[in-house]
Design brief:
The protein has 203 residues and is mainly beta. It is built from three helices and eleven strands.
Length: 203
């Protein structure tokens, strides 16, 4: 290894390393260090499907260096992916979005990917963290109401999935939201096609 002023020999090939997101910056350093004594260091855990058992740390793809753990009283799975600075939250049997997001290990500018497909939500309400959401997937719930403030907070999202719910209309104010460049999916909802909703066709 090279620390900027002198070379340092690191001998650790006989150790069993846990290669999860807690060691992301250390693994990134090894990737950028070039040929050295760290080439033989192997990852003992976690398991990496599709890779040989105990893969070499220097050849481990950085997007596989994650932390995965139960969260929200074991009703959700949370995955921290420091390589692309995303934090994934996938839940089941929930009636509302959580009030807050877990604190990631690394102090990066994380974007959240919230996957609540097939839960029991009846409304989409504002949450402070929605401004940092990149993907919101709430397909197949029972959502009847979408708060316009929640949609305004999601202006930076790349994907919003609202299909397969019980929406018959949206607040008229959503037509005034500007700056959204992502994709929003609204099909397979029981839309009210009366004159009062004709603006939706134009929107």
């Amino acid at each position: 290894l090279w620390n900027g002023s002198q070379s340092v020999q690191f001998i650790g090939a006989s150790n069993d390393f846990i290669c999860d997101c807690l060691e992301y910056e250390w693994i990134s350093l090894i990737h950028s260090s070039g040929p050295s004594t760290v080439d033989q260091i192997r990852c003992n855990s976690p398991a990496f499907p599709g890779l040989p058992p105990k893969p070499k740390m220097v050849s481990l793809p950085l997007d596989r260096v994650v932390c995965s753990h139960p969260c929200y009283h074991d009703n959700c799975d949370c995955i921290e992916r420091p390589h692309n600075k995303t934090y994934h939250v996938q839940c089941h049997q929930q009636t509302d979005l959580p009030d807050s997001m877990p604190q990631p290990h690394w102090n990066y500018s994380y974007k959240y990917a919230i996957q609540f497909r097939g839960n029991h939500l009846e409304s989409l309400l504002p949450k402070d963290y929605l401004v940092n959401v990149s993907i919101l997937d709430v397909r197949g719930n029972g959502i009847k109401q979408v708060d316009v403030i929640a949609l305004k907070m999601l202006i930076g999202a790349s994907e919003i999935r609202l299909d397969g719910n019980n929406l018959s209309t949206l607040p008229r104010e959503v037509a005034e939201i500007t700056g959204f460049s992502g994709n929003i999916s609204l099909y397979d909802n029981p839309w009210n096609c009366s004159c009062q909703n004709i603006w939706l066709q134009q929107w």
